Fold:
Amino acid sequence: MKNQISMKTALSREVKALKIWSKYTNIIGIIILTKLFSKGAPFVTMYLSARVINLLSAGAAKDSIVKMVILTLAVTAVLSIISTFLQKWKDLVSEGFWETSYKILADKKASMDFVDADSQKVADLISQIRQNNNWAGWGLYRSMATFETLMDALVTIICGTLLSVELFLLPVVSGKFSFLNNPLFAVVLIAVMVINSVLGGFINNIHEREWASYAEEARFGNRAFGAYGWFSNDISRAADIRLYRQDKITIKYMRQSDSFTETCSLAKKFRGKFGLFSFVKFGVQNIGNGIIYLFVCLKAWAGAFPIGSATQYIGAVTGVFMGVNSLLGALEEIRTNGKFLEDTFEYMDYPNNMYQGSLTTEKRRDTHYEVEFKNVSFKYPGSENYALKNVNLKFTVGEKLAVVGMNGSGKTTFIKLLCRLYDPTEGAIYLNGIDIKKYRYDEYMNIFAIVFQDFKLFAMPLGENVATSTDYDREEVTRCLEKAGFSDRLKKLPKGLDTFLYKNLDKEGVDVSGGEAQKIAIARALYKDAPFVILDEPTAALDPVAEAEIYSKFNDIVGDKTAVYISHRLSSCKFCDEIAVFHEGAVIQKGTHEQLLADPKGKYYELWNAQAQYYNEEIEEAS
Structure:
């Protein structure tokens, strides 16, 4: 990988990643405890077994042997039970780690200033982080897996070292092999271990670098698979796939991605030089193991220790050797993953620059609210052009305000500023004479109930969809659904409010049409019981009869609340108290339907007549 980072930087990023994980789970402590037992237990058993063999080889009394055997079995059984329990506990806690890694990203996005959360830069960062994760778990997910490997290695090294120290301290009794007492042999043995570890680490480094350097190609392969791999599972595409044989197109593009086949460049490398590297690595490791066996067996033969201890020392020294290899591999993996964590931390460290405010925005009993835009202008981040310019607009509680205009005229931007998803570039917005920036951000947003054009329903029961909660007032939810025109469909649902929408989670779930979904979304806004109701094309998916039904009782639906209504259908705006016409980021006209239509030079008149072919009857009535 290019621009490889230092080990110090990598370790600091690993620690930072673990701190993020610790906010979501207690798995770090569980891993440490689990590894102490699961990796330490074999060494305890190894030590006790060596004592049993020593007693047998020395011809010790039967009672002594039996006691040692019982002790060995008892300790092994207890450690095994504890290790199994801890392992199951760890597996249970870590079961949803993959999903948790995405929840961490989602929680961060939810806490961001919306102007950042909605930006292309953040979208690109999230995409990059997800592709890294999908490729090989790089990022937060890998940091936890590497920590587990690191703990494996450390416990193995510590336990192995404790059991092998005596190997170098116990002298050979026989004069014939007294040369083995020379400290040089210990130095040679340690040197062999170091050479093995360094060589293994070197090959691991090459392996990790090549694996990581393939990330760009792998990310492309994941993107191609994400776009086309599940293409045929999308029910909404079924007709197009059948009529236009779009499956043939997807095969073409899938074949262009050669990221995960036996002919890809990574596969060729692992069949070529990496195969040779692996051969050398394991060959040297086996030679090192052979030297360890030879040294231990010679000292045992020379009487430095009994044969049982020989099995202990072979297992312990081999364990240290393997632990060091594992440690070096884990450290290199941490360094490689540290590079991928750059994207994660750039995202996680994104500051929230929106001023949060401190004033309380209570739901007033007198429902008296007045909103005013004063010389409000706004530019989207990175843009030199104004999306809104010098907007001045005032509306009070109980009013029905329609916002109309061509695409790109600033209607949606106006709503985003009103709900404080963005702050104005210039000017200010006032609620009851106070700049909305001074109100607590979360409380200010609670005075709005919004139905966006691209609203989402969830695969959960109807009642929970409306209330957005598992604990809700069933009578109130039913009333809101009736107000939104959903009562007839509600009566036909097999389980009423407990009927699941869609079949993602319940095979008996029901599918709803676009119009029915829109009515549920309107009911959701009503259930919130906020003083401001904002409807963005609320009848776009309704048929003419259902649309007329909504309009005919719109005042009953909204009640005494302030309603801001965005629509492209000018015929649907006649019931509003005032209409604001947006054009090129400015409010160029305000008035009632009749007043605006009386100005033949106005934009509203132009838009109305452009749609005249669709509602001739309305034009005749207006005349």
Q: What stands out?
A: Residues 618-623 have pLDDT under 50 and may be disordered. Strands lie at 370-379, 386-396, 400-405, 426-431, 434-435, 448-451, 532-536, 562-566, 578-583, 586-591. The chain has three domains: 7-25+94-216+281-348, 365-447+531-623, 457-529.
